[in-house]
Amino acid sequence: MSDMKPASLPEDQPATGIETLPPELRFLKRLVTVLTATMIAGLLTIILIFVTRFPGAATPGALPALPDHITLPAGASATAVTYGPGWIGVVTDANAFLIFDAATGALRQTVSLTPSIAPEG
C-alpha cells in the first residue's frame, strides 16, 4: 500500500471554477440557484400581500365598530365584540357578556363572567 501515489490533476487543467464541473453538476448548480431565487421572491410576495391586505391588523386593541342601534349599559365599555346569526355579543370590562338582537339592538341576555384564577407554580 505504500507504493500507491495520490491522484493529481493534469497541469494544463485548472482546479477552480464552474468550468471544471461536469455538465450535470453545472445544471444542478444553476437549478438550485434559480429555485432559491424563486423561493425568496415568493416569500417576499407573501409578505407584501400580508402587509397590503391587513394594514389595520398591526393596530393592537382595535375592535369592530358596534352598530349605532346597540347601546351599552352606563359605565360599560366593550373589550370584545362577536357577531352571530341574528345576535351580537359584547364582552364588557365589568366581566359581563351582553347578547343583543342584531335587528333591533334590544338586549336579549346578560351572562356574568367569572375571571379565571391563574394556577400558582
Low-confidence stretches: none
What shape does the CA trace take?
Answer: elongated
The domain tally reads: 2
Number of strands: 4
Report the C-alpha radius of gyration, rounded. 33 Å
Order of helices and strands: HEEEE
Your description of this structure?
By secondary structure, this protein is an alpha+beta fold. It has 2 domains: 18-56; 63-113. It is built from 1 helix and 4 strands. A 4-stranded antiparallel sheet has the order 1-2-3-4, with no helix packed on it. A hairpin with a 3-residue loop joins β2 and β3. The longest helix is centred in the first third of the chain and has 31 residues, at 23-53.
Keyword list:
121 residues, alpha+beta, 2 domains, four-stranded antiparallel β-sheet, 1 helix, 4 strands, elongated
